[in-house]
Amino acid sequence: MTTDPGTPTHETLLDRWLDDLQVLAARLEQVHLPADFPFDYSPGSLAVLERALLDGEHDDAFRRAATAYIGEVLMDVCGGRWDIDPATGGEDGDPLVSPDPALGLPPLSVGTLVDVALAEGSGEVLTRERDRLADAVSERRRTAPGWEPHKERSPLDPIGPQPADAWLQLWLAEREEAHPEWARRVCGSDDPWDGDFTPAGLDLLEQRLRERYGTLAEFDADRESPFLQGAVWYLGQVLCRHHDSTWVYWAIEPDAPRGSHHHAENPWSGIPFTHQPHTRGAAPRDPLEMLRGVIRYGTGHRLTKIIADVYPGCAAVRAGAGTGRVSGSARRHRC
After folding, report:
1. How far apart are CA 235 and CA 43, in angstroms?
2. What DSSP designation does 300 have?
3. What global pTM score does this model have?
């Protein structure tokens, strides 16, 4: 028996599923679930999601997006990895959760679990399955003290600790040292503002940007200036202080494989940027590009509004909380 050359392989289907995870998570949050859904991958969110499935329309798009979320929550308990069954689940295959092998549990079809939840209608199926896996983990820990389930990384996992980069450490230290003088020049000698990482500071920075640059060409030509580098650091620090973000820098390496962090064609290589390492599916943020938007999009582009839209759950910047200085040379550069 020969294989149809037009039939996707197991590896192809699994790669497609993993590639789709971030889009599915975004669609679940933006389209299928209400604004008050606790999108935190917590055990308690499973019951809320099951109720949403029972109350909503059972279309394939909703079910597939929910499958991605449910599988990630379950793997937070039992470890393991995503797999796929090409023989079921239609042309895209059936996504499976394969628990940590040490548990001795068979792969779990998350789609089938959703079917059971919809058929039973109790609102308890997802939580019950999570509890079953937790019991298996507890039993394994009892017989093997010190053991913990291992979860293979998926595109929805936080990026985790980043190795300290010498260039980034130096850049952060230089920017912090230059900050008092930079702040004085931004506000003027008669202004008491000292660059305190509050909304008033962002508004003043916006004003100075508009006064200094009339065109994008002027802005781009000044990218490496002390003024803009100080502004990049200042905006990044606001994100770090109030939005659980971290400075990251991936140096360009000539021999890096295509598609890697350090390849020259990666738009995030060779620049300091911020990321939320503890938030699933968080997108990196380039402070320089956010500042560039002030000139590109005009007065409708407000930094405080952009930040509030990107990080809707955090009100610290809008409230002006937090003014302490933090060294940029700490490990992982978390502010």
Report:
1. 34
2. G
3. 0.60
